Amino acid sequence: MKKTWKLLLTIVVAAILTAVLCVCAFASEGAIATLSVKTGDAADPLSPGAVRWYEDPYSGKYFLFLPEETDRENMIVWFSADAPVTVGGQTLVTGVPTDAFAEGDEFTVMCGGTAYDLVIMSAPGSAAIFINTESGSMDAVNASKSVKEAGSIRVVDADGTIQYDGALEYIKGRGNSTWLNEKKPYNIKLDKKAELFGMEKSKKWCLLANATDLSIIRNSLNYDMARALGIETTSDVIALNLYCNGAYMGAYALTEKVEIASGRVDIYDLEDANEKANELDPEEYPLGGGQNIRSFNTYKYASLPNDPDEITGGYLLELEKLNRYPDEASGFVTEHGQAVVVKEPEFASKAEVEYIRDYYAAFEEAFYAQTGYNQEGRHYTDYLDAKSLAMAYILQEFCENFDGCSSSFYLYKDVDGKLTYGPAWDLDLALGSGGVNKLIAPSLNNTDPRNFYQMNTFLGYQDESLPSLLAQAMNHADFRELVYDLWKNVFTPYFNTFGWKVDTIGAAVNDTAAMNAIRWHYYGTSEPAEARRMHLSTLEPIKAFAQLRFATLNPIFSQTRCFVRYDTNRMSSSMIRDLSTYAPGSQVTLPNAKPRTSLPFLKLGGWSTEPDGGGEIYPAGTKVTIDKTTTFYAVWVPEDGFSNKLVSFFERVRTTIRLILHFFTMISV
Q1: Which terminal CB of the chain, N or C, has fewer other CB atoms within 10 Å?
Q2: Which of 422, 226, 234 lies closest to 316, judged by CA?
Q3: DSSP element (H, E) containing 15
Q4: Could you please report the per-residue DSSP string of 211-271?
């Protein structure tokens, strides 16, 4: 028993001595546990405006990414250390101003016998936003887009002027594919409306991460292009640096949220009218309709007990991919399979969704008709501001936006007004950024400036027999005339300034982009000078892309070259594309087309240049001379052995089955 106690005592003493020796050894080496710098009027290390240093895991160096407002000659450093901290022979005192960091950008910070390599970077001319969450962490917000966290926020201009300093109602995640990146985009809502950087007063703002755009200027460039084309609802965008709980988050773009509001989409506020007409907030009422259904001709809504007197506007709609549609509260899927989200009013009533659904259906029927007229005899321009869509087409086609009109594509409608494009949004996967879109068959590469990208996309990525909204628009001769006029008189003069804008905007954000690149290790370097150089190298490809893009599109839109379209009347299961352009007088060989598998009794009889199949019919394989942009319409005839009466019978059966399926779908709604 005594031996056992002696053994235990020996172990305990040894453990204590080991711990003491380790502590002594640790103390002799010296360690800095935390280090923060005061910027602006930060009161302590935990208040907005305090910036923590960042340990770069790739180089082992520590970085202080500071806003321009930092006074380097009287810099207050807060730190926690177990030994004296010195820089260049000066001993630092936590919370006391020092000029030890006034000269140069690279320093050796000593704590006991431990050396820390410190690099200071700042971005002259750049604004900053400081957000502190109530939890002191961004972990929960970054884990799920559904999480909102309150806190405080300080918005500072480049010269140190405070634009907003107060409560933050929430910060939350946003985006779809962009949310999947390590660097997250956010939505923020202030406690009260504020006019930030000259933009209209609002509580709601977006912080775009630009994680896929190393130049960090593509959205700025494309929004500038949209405004030049006349898209008045286009949001302003400000490049700045974001800090959350003292940690540098990187370069972000602050922009106005897409919403109905003064200075944004300035139309009748139907959402506000719904709130006034009902006792509860609209989002508190149960949802109705096909909330989780993506079937054609279905819709969903909020079960509001009362409707305002006026429901013909204002609506803010988003064309969206079918797989994302179930996440929204209000919307409808058209007969052609286009998912349309009612973004505002977000919780639209049944009557409101039915109104805008029927309006869009009448437009869609006319728009996809070869003549441009629906069964009521109304032209698609009776429902749509065609000039605004022509602006959208030039913007989306020139910058070759990856999503085009399949997502983040907005239309609005005011009281007794028409559908109008705007605002332009989410244009960072453009101007040579993106890649092969495998959802389009055959695949299209939006980084190839020689493509006619939007002209060859199909509707919503789900029905390959129908062109997308922008592709279908170019089937109408009157629409093409609008595009040609805008290209000549508006876009071409603007393009002559494009290269200068790339250089100017790019140079203005060079320091911010370098900080951002080192923080997220985008260039594989931790050297500031190299990061700045590599950022500037991202600008030349944008200019080169734009030059070749203009050279590709200009002959078409100046009508010195032409293109060919094929319309199969939805009888074939996929679009037939001709990606080439032709000089007038060229010959094209007409392709073959197969009917849908549900139509085995039909075969292609040939192609006609008349929408009704009249005039001369050219068999597949025929070489035809074209002198202008031409659409060929498929003419279908009965397969050998099938009579016209039998074909008519099968068509009636097919139509009856569709009606039955539609009936059961509506019951499920």
Answers
A1: N
A2: 422
A3: helix 2-29
A4: TT-TTS-HHHHHHHHHHHHT-TTPPPEEEEEEEETTEEEEEEEEEE-SSBSTTSB-S--HH
Task: Give the DSSP H/E element, type plus range, for residue 532.
Answer: helix 528-537
Distances (CA, A) of 520 to 34, 109, 119, 214: 21, 24, 16, 11
366 membership: H or E segment, kind and range: helix 350-367
HSE-up of residue 359 (Cα within 13 Å, Cβ side):
27
In the predicted model, residues of the chain with pLDDT beneath 70 are 1-28, 437-443, 460-465, 641-669
Q: Tally Cβ neighbours within 10 Å of residue 160.
A: 16
pLDDT for the residue numbered 646 = 54
The answer to whether the beta carbons of residues 587 and 625 sit under 8 Å apart is: yes
User: d(Cα 433, Cα 445) in Å, to the nearest integer?
Assistant: 10
DSSP-based three-state secondary structure for 57: coil
Token code pair at residue 265: 């989409």
DSSP-based helix, strand, coil % in the chain, nearest 5: 30, 30, 40
Per residue in 314-355, pLDDT tens?
A: 999 999 988 889 989 999 999 888 999 999 999 999 999 999
pLDDT tens-digit series, residues 206-246: 999 999 899 999 999 999 999 999 999 998 899 999 999 99
CA atoms within 13 A on the CB side of 124: 1
Q: pTM for the whole thing?
A: 0.87
- Do the Cβ atoms of 239 and 210 come closer than 8 Å? no
Q: How many residues does the chain have?
A: 669
Alpha-carbon distances, residue 528 vs 118, 123, 210, 516 (angstroms): 12, 12, 20, 10
Beta bridge partners of 299: 332
Orientation angle between helical segments 218-229 and 498-508, nearest 10 degrees: 140
Taking the C-alpha atoms of residue 635 and residue 619, their distance in angstroms, rounded to an integer, is 9
Tokens 């060989």 identify what position?
589
Per-residue pLDDT tens over the stretch 546-571: 999 999 999 999 999 999 989 888 78
Find the angle CA(174)-CA(178)-CA(183) to the nearest 5 degrees.
90
